[in-house]
């Protein structure tokens, strides 16, 4: 429903600091530590394989914590959950900084992932409470976009600090960013307080939410799993294919940076289209373009073609910014929303884990080109799911 005409129009900029400030700072923290975790593990004597596993513990910690994160957020509210998650993340990062053994670093990284699960879920539900439904896609697309901006800034901020203080500098940047995110969340208004007080005291169980919304999880949820697998794979494909073409590390970094720049530039227009015309008109083109771009990359043999299709890939991923959160918010019930979104995030995280595994497995038994083409086909499968089950109309026009 659109707001009554007598009410002043809602403007996203009125909640910019409390809603998006923590998202930018979380992105900075994430971007600052991701490049240095493997290097820290190697300094502590870990093998290359063990270092790679320790990096993956962020995703594993997030995945296994989605349901507990939903329970915590439902019990304590979005704002307090974000504050608590930020503080827990700071303690986990300090454990990483002062690690003297690989198991300490591994534990710290795993705990960072657990904190991220709570923080990201609480941040999403906080914004859903703060924004009217007719602006939801723009709000959540901007949320995804601001996080990407922070992730883009993070490595540069980390690199500057590393120059003066060694590898620990990346973690200290993350500590400062998460403290800032927690402080903003602490000072922010609690938009969900009225909704929580109006709801019954008895909270629905996660298993009941899973059962009553099973059809949504098995239909649109499948599309979200495929989208997440596609997105996670593309981050691996670009550097691997660049290496396959014999590009230098510097040239690969430039291509990756250009792709990221395109990715960050289109999130708000895409959110506007979703709000005005419906989620279908962005979700379907984005997964089709991502899938076709990956298939095209698997057929390239020169830098120019690779760059063009990589930029198309970045554009397609950019317009899909916030789509997982938006579709989850649309499908979630008012009572039991955090429990629903916890399951939704678990599905997305499973997809994030599966994508690179599929790429690696097919590359091992066939070739890199076959692996890239195979993950590209996930985009076509996601498009089929959205064509079948995603509504065409915007929320305000649905009965």
UniProtKB/TrEMBL annotation:
<keyword id="KW-0472">Membrane</keyword>
<dbReference type="InterPro" id="IPR050171">
    <property type="entry name" value="MFS_Transporters"/>
</dbReference>
<keyword id="KW-1003">Cell membrane</keyword>
<feature type="transmembrane region" description="Helical">
    <location>
        <begin position="280"/>
        <end position="299"/>
    </location>
</feature>
<feature type="domain" description="Major facilitator superfamily (MFS) profile">
    <location>
        <begin position="15"/>
        <end position="394"/>
    </location>
</feature>
<feature type="transmembrane region" description="Helical">
    <location>
        <begin position="245"/>
        <end position="268"/>
    </location>
</feature>
<feature type="transmembrane region" description="Helical">
    <location>
        <begin position="368"/>
        <end position="390"/>
    </location>
</feature>
<feature type="transmembrane region" description="Helical">
    <location>
        <begin position="305"/>
        <end position="329"/>
    </location>
</feature>
<dbReference type="InterPro" id="IPR036259">
    <property type="entry name" value="MFS_trans_sf"/>
</dbReference>
<dbReference type="GO" id="GO:0022857">
    <property type="term" value="F:transmembrane transporter activity"/>
</dbReference>
<feature type="transmembrane region" description="Helical">
    <location>
        <begin position="20"/>
        <end position="41"/>
    </location>
</feature>
<feature type="transmembrane region" description="Helical">
    <location>
        <begin position="169"/>
        <end position="186"/>
    </location>
</feature>
<dbReference type="InterPro" id="IPR011701">
    <property type="entry name" value="MFS"/>
</dbReference>
<keyword id="KW-0813">Transport</keyword>
<feature type="transmembrane region" description="Helical">
    <location>
        <begin position="341"/>
        <end position="362"/>
    </location>
</feature>
<feature type="transmembrane region" description="Helical">
    <location>
        <begin position="105"/>
        <end position="122"/>
    </location>
</feature>
<keyword id="KW-1133">Transmembrane helix</keyword>
<dbReference type="InterPro" id="IPR020846">
    <property type="entry name" value="MFS_dom"/>
</dbReference>
<feature type="transmembrane region" description="Helical">
    <location>
        <begin position="216"/>
        <end position="233"/>
    </location>
</feature>
<dbReference type="Pfam" id="PF07690">
    <property type="entry name" value="MFS_1"/>
</dbReference>
<dbReference type="GO" id="GO:0005886">
    <property type="term" value="C:plasma membrane"/>
</dbReference>
<protein>
    <submittedName>
        <fullName>Drug efflux system protein MdtG</fullName>
    </submittedName>
</protein>
<keyword id="KW-0812">Transmembrane</keyword>
<feature type="transmembrane region" description="Helical">
    <location>
        <begin position="81"/>
        <end position="98"/>
    </location>
</feature>
<feature type="transmembrane region" description="Helical">
    <location>
        <begin position="48"/>
        <end position="69"/>
    </location>
</feature>
